Amino acid sequence: MKPRQKRIALIVGGLAALGLAAAFVLNALDSNIAFYITPSEIAAGKAPQNKTFRVGGMVKEGSLTRDNLTVSFVITDTARDVKVTYTGILPDLFKEGKGAVAQGRLNPDGSFTATEVLAKHDENYMPPEAGHAIEQAQKAQQTVAKP
Amino acid sequence: MSNRLINWFKFASPQSFYPLAGKMIPWFWALAAIFLIVGLYISFFVAPTDATQGEGYRVIFVHVPAAWMSMFLYCVMAGWAGIGLALNTRLSGMMAQAIAPTGALMAFLSLWTGAFWGKPMWGAWWVWDARLTSALILFFLYIGFIALQAAIDDARRADKAGAILALVGVVNVPIIYFSVKWWNTLHQGASVSIMKSPTMATTMLWGMLIMALAFWMYSIAVILTRVRAIILEREAHTEWVKALPEVRGESR
Description:
The complex is a heterodimer of chains A (147) and B (252).
Chain A: H1 3-33, H2 39-43, E1 53-59, E2 65-67, E3 70-76, E4 81-87, E5 99-106, E6 112-120, H3 128-145
Parallel strand pairs in A: 4-6
Antiparallel strand pairs in A: 1-3, 1-5, 2-3, 3-4, 5-6
Chain B: H1 14-46, H2 60-87, H3 90-121, H4 130-151, H5 155-169, H6 172-182, H7 202-234, H8 239-242, H9 245-251
Helix pairs in contact in B: 1-7, 2-3, 2-4, 2-5, 2-7, 3-4, 3-5, 3-7, 4-5, 4-6
């Protein structure tokens, strides 16, 4: 092998080894990298005890109630629900049926007291008319679905 | 005579690349200006308001092109660094050195505009989710590369040290790109990817793509300008640099 080929082999080999190592490390860290856990994961006992953590999912339709600045709502991943109470100002994009992430603690009764609530939006961008049309279609579908 | 149409290796020497880059720079500036004007016009006046995010989503027209550029430039920089390590070509190290500041600028721009976008939409300037954290690491990699290169006086040794750092950092690029797929993140997924049709209205998409082209042209123009300066600095002792009209004019 010429020295040049040796160097190329070394670089390619080094990068491959590095990539493999990174893959293993990230795999091992998997659950720690997640920004939030889902209600199903809480139900499976994966929530940290006596420590703050974040729970994320959809805000369940019709679950939002307000009492002055204290709001309570249900975060769902469609399989499991978690009831969240929060005192403070919600972000503008916080809406029923949309994504949200709450940070706080799990109470012994299984409810969640949040100290911070963030809105999570999706990667779809469309003009208001299209958005409105989709919303109408979804509503129509829901009314058909529950006779 | 070479049987190829263009002898690429000829342009791997700083002496022949210097005038070529000089000829290309005005064209890239002109293209950058055209794409920027068209892109900004579409972004602000043609593209419709977003259904959920209102006018605030328009940050995307700077944020996404900057983020794309920061990742792409890092790959190009690492590519040059790798070529320099393997083939010991002089120009490669200079190219890597010239790309780093623009890459850092793009990484910073993506983080900064991201913060401005995050506050009104998510409710936070910054969160430590996988996407944001890995993008911050990319910015630090650029800064680290620049600092390491600047810390070593001997240019060839600086190139080698920088190249190793740049190549190691490449691991981070796919992590940034796939972070929103692999883990739960607050950051939304990709609207535009090769795997699926874009999830944006057509005019919005065009605005973003033209802005991305503008960022490309700007980056190429600036990087070529910078690499010319680096060539002059590093090759200052050579006869061909001393014979350049612009260099003779200065020393007179």
